[in-house]
Amino acid sequence: MIGFNGTLFAYGQSGSGKTYTIDAMRTYVIEAIYDHIRNCPSREFILRVAYMELYNEHLSDLLTNKPLHLRETTDRNLFIEGLDEEIVLSQDHFHQILKKGNDNRTFAATSQNDHSSRAHCIFQIAIESRVREDGEDSSVFISQINLVDLAGSEKAGENSGNRFREGCSINLSLLTLSQVIRKLSEGDKNAHINYRDSKLTRLLQNALGGNSRTAILCSVSPSSVEETMSTLRFASNAKRVKNQPKQNEVVPIEAKLKRSLLENERLKKEIEELRRGNLSSLDHLPSVKEGEIESHKERKDLEDLSTQGRDRNVSSRRRGRGISQVSVWINAKYSLYDI
Fold this sequence. Notes:
The strands form 3 sheets. Strands 1, 2, 3, 6, 9, 10, 11 and 12 form an 8-stranded mixed beta sheet that branches. The protein has a two-stranded antiparallel sheet with strand order 4-5. A two-stranded antiparallel sheet has the order 7-8. It has 2 domains: 6-250, Kinesin motor domain (Kinesin, 3-Layer(aba) Sandwich); 253-334, no CATH class. It is built from 9 helices and 12 strands. The protein is globular, with a radius of gyration of 27 Å. It is an alpha+beta fold. A hairpin with a 2-residue loop joins strand 2 (43-55) and strand 3. Residues 1-241 form the Kinesin motor domain.
């Protein structure tokens, strides 16, 4: 809700309860989102949802029944061509969209489950928010939540015909997912991660070692010890994967310009104060924020230079590092431009 991405996906054997659990989590997430919105009257929110299915390595939109294609931008970021995003008007509308997508999902009976999901499904919620009072100039926080119901792993030989082909495709994508998780869990930064070997891992790439807070729900069943052990090994590897979530903030051009102008003026005033020698210490500057001076040494150097404006008897070494150098340093640090 404050600009961080999140992913929850369920992994486990067919018939172990993944779909029921994810259905319940969707309801819980929707309620939590609207509770947060009601408790934040100072911010305005826009919610967008998308619902997609990966069946036999073919990606489709569950809201429009149209095929989708994975594409890359010039800076190597993934986007889904043709994906329809609906703006959510209310909590009831949220559930209507969800039901519409669920009605188009691919289910079939297997040896393990009479109503088995035969495709990986991703329910995607995009949340944008900004402060109401600042209007169009305010920065926007953008969060993306992915709720993923993976198709169940099972022995392909236990089915026949279409179910056999589906099982082979499901197991291949889950095998690639397991390999990616295992490679990431080893912590080798130079290792090649084979995200491209499956569309599933491409879709989940951000959630696997990337910019997302990720939770994995592993479901097990007493019907198969072998499948249960495989799921537990997957969970053991997954818990060692480290992601790098970051806050996603988009600042409009007008707001960026306004911020730059204000920062430019503030720093120019500080430089003038240093030139006049009116600063006895940088601690007297309430506008200096914590973190703008990278180290105690840099702060001490600037304090020494401000003292230089009043004390003519300092050493030649101090005089050699004059105010002009401070100006160059600050301009270089903050990329100042004359307006």
